[in-house]
Amino acid sequence: MTYGFIDTHCHFDFPPFSGEESASLARAAEQGVRHIIVPAVWAERFDVVLDLARRYDMLSAALGLHPLYIARHQPEDVERLADILNDQAQEVTAVGEIGLDLFMEEPRLPQQIALLQSQLHLAKQHDLPVILHSRRSHDPLARELRRADLPRRGVVHGFSGSLAQAQAFVRLGYFIGVGGTITYERAQKTRNVMAQLPLSSLLLETDAPDMPLAGYQGQPNRPERVAQVFRTLCELRPEPADEIAGVIFANSKRLFSLPL
Predict the structure, then answer these.
(1) 1 pLDDT exceeds 90?
(2) Model confidence at 3, in pLDDT bands (50, 70, 90)?
(3) Residue partners of 49: CB distance under 8 A and separation at least 6
(4) Is pLDDT above 80 for 2?
(5) Is 97 assigned a ligand-binding role in the annotation?
(6) Is 157 known as a binding-site position?
């Protein structure tokens, strides 16, 4: 049986999709993918991501400044994001990819926090959800989200922390992104977390072309492989597959206000 999926995190503005958009979307649709959220990672990609969403109904744009690139972001980049949201907010589905990353050699945490706070403020101002990156930073990120108190909340994508950390985000009203990590049997901590969280708090994602699934190491990840993430999640959860598919689809549709 083919279910309907929403890939809530795919960097479709990068290779191998660039120049192959129609074929890539057709491949994804064959596996049941009905929609894809495309988060930008730096200001130079804002127009590219917006253009993709205008050209293809299957795509929605999210705009944000990724913490991994803290060294390249400039103050005017936040101003550019603010201008787009003021003028074209109806074309933007979420603010993202934003967040914190303490896995970097030079994390520049004060700068990261300031950048995050400015973007959380914009999300609140425009009543948009956020797409959050977090590596070794779940606790400080949760603190910032608690302070920001966004009405629309958002999703912590590619989550690989502890159950207690995931539950802290869920208590704040945030969704948890389930990706290809669970396809690796050695990732027992993450697999156990996704098995125990409420189904009402989960979304599916690929992070394509990054985060290859088990069996595809060394290859670009692709949005159609969200179906394989789903199948693995079904192996870990007690609920029937149709319930898992239906609840997660509804979660995604509701968070991003998708007219599907």
Answers:
(1) no
(2) confident
(3) 13, 38, 39, 40, 61, 62, 63
(4) no
(5) yes
(6) yes
pLDDT digits (tens, 9 = 90+) for 42-87: 999 999 999 999 999 999 999 999 999 999 999 999 999 999 999 9
Token representation of residue 222? 């692709």
Ligand-binding annotation for 76, yes or no, is no
207 is in an annotated binding site: yes
Asked if 160 contacts 124 with a C-beta cutoff of 8 angstroms, the reply is no
Q: 2 φ, ψ to 5°?
A: -100, 125
How many other C-beta atoms lie within 10 A of the C-beta of residue 181? 22
| Token pair for 150 | 């966004």
Determine if residue 9 is labeled as part of a ligand binding site. yes
pLDDT of residue 188: 98
**Token duo for residue 94:** 């979420």
Q: Give 5-256's CATH code, choosing from 3.20.20.140, 3.60.21.10, 3.90.1150.10, 1.10.443.10.
A: 3.20.20.140
